[in-house]
Amino acid sequence: MTSRKAYEIGTPGKPWGSEEKAEWLAQQTVKRSYFDDVVDKIDTLEQDFDVERYGTLPYQANTYPLYLVKSRDWDASKPVVLVTGGVHGYETSGVHGALRFLETKALDYARVANVIVAPCISPWGYETINRWNPLAIDPNRSFVENSPARECRFLLEYMKSLEGKLLVHIDLHETTDTDNSEFRPALAAREGTVNTNWNIPDGFYLVADADRNEPGFQQAIIESVEKVTHIAEPDEDGKLIGVALAQHGVINYAAKNLGLCMGLTNARYVTTTEVYPDSEKATPEQCIQAQVAAITGGLDEVLA
Length: 304
Hints:
10 helices; zinc ion binding; metallocarboxypeptidase activity; hydrolase activity, acting on ester bonds; Peptidase
């Protein structure tokens, strides 16, 4: 691990207050369109799926509708499969991997399971290429009761009303070079702590729930993704992002304690994918395909 210079906002050692958060927010700009890239694609899926609006985020210049795409013939006797993307809006292949799964594979699984997909949980983060929401809150640490992040509250409330037994939840993410260059330094500045960076793994890996790790499920995903792109090797300490390997390409986190998206339900089979889009050995298209392969590999293992 290596330390980096102090972040440009705030006073080292002092947590941010409202003034620092406002200064940070003022620096954020829209770089791409949630409506063009995501909503327009969701609209084309309505011929095969039910599309539900489960919330609205009134942020800055835009008001963002939040959408779920569901199996049309919902059957409460079938198991439920949940796929989430864009919890961190800047993690592009998570959003487009969820959409690609819907466009190419989801109908196959809808024959034996209820499929529900939230392609972009953080649309403001998608547009501004950001990890946080406009309140400088990380949604992937905020899936908790009375969440401070509306992105999380809307989905938590919706899932409470869902009919059927949730069996699988796959949450699509990326680990990028900007985790070290921007987001971890910003986090340390916000919290008033000293920043230490981890080595960014070159390749795909999984973060499993320490309390529901299901090694066979994780292995099936790794084997499926290996056909598309390379799996990250551990660093010299045998770790990925500072955590010891649990198995090939897999580390464990305490999902519910940390407020992670993969901890929002009690599904038996859960995992978080991590694609590395900055690798010289992977293209943006491969990253999207890796996300789809992760979903299908896990579902094939569980639903076979």
